[in-house]
Amino acid sequence: MSVVSVVKVDDKSVDPETVFRAVNKAMRLAGWEKRVSGKNLVLKVNVVWDKIYPSCTTTPMVIEGILKTVLSSKKIRPNRITIVDTDTAAIVRADVSFKIQGIEKMANKYGVEVVNLSNTEFVDIKFEKGVVLKKLRVSKVLLDADTIITVPVLKTHSYSQLTGALKNQWGCIHDLRHNFHMVLNDAIPDVNNFFKGKIRFALMDGLFGMEGKGPKTGRPRKIGYIFASSDLVGLDTVVATVMGIDPYSVKHIVKSQRIGLGSMKVKVVGDAMPKYSFERADRSNIVMGTEMRLRHLGPKIEWLMFNSKSPVLFLFRWTAKAYYDIWYQLVGIKYVRKMMETNFGRMWSRYYL
How many structural domains compose the chain? Predict the structure, then answer.
């Protein structure tokens, strides 16, 4: 049975200290110091968009809360802490996202480096245990880490129902990972199985949550919770339940349990688990829907459209970026304004203004 901590964040103040305290409590209740070890610590966050869009990316307040907790520990004393993510297929550069969202500025205050994994050296590694990922192209930054703490966001996903602690490792492999979208529910357990010895703790940023057409163009809503566990399967089981999704209907969670990555039997500690009814991501946005329709036309069309050397792929990626940028200005910005008027939004604005 896995232990998952649930901590409600005080939303009556604009002081980020309220988030820091909640993060610290969630980590302590989940026994983080028993799991994290070594001198080289990596925080795998989610900066999938170079925009301020609450519920889409890991907030700097939560990341800072983790840094403060780690750096104040008398047991865990890493020599190096690195905050990382990778570029996306839709031409979103992680290093640009770090700047825009205020994460780089915050990290500099603590002498912590932010790294775009796409700009680092990658190594091709055979993985005999993989069901569909028989070879992974992985950054040396991750391979050199003693411990990885994964820091996902609570949101829906059009391909995998939700993107949580397990799905967050999708950004640990090279950006051509989109070619595994047809086998995503096997690929997610594979990549987590590969990093099983390194990813020892997960903390989910639930200040905001996304429902509907996630992981980018869904609707944000204020949630105000932090979730943490050393068991990624257990954490995603709890979060799926919080969102109103039957965790046993989420294939990658079930398959991850089946191969021994964790347990769906959980013990919740801390505050009472909230219950919501999130709008499902039953329908994809235009970009994701078009991709799936093209892939279902057969292997020849799929190769023509999505092969790394194909000029069509280059065009598709830039078209996707243009769509997301336009959607943000025409639709998304109204959601942003509403969320940034909350106290959590006001906290965030302190990091990038």
Answer: 1
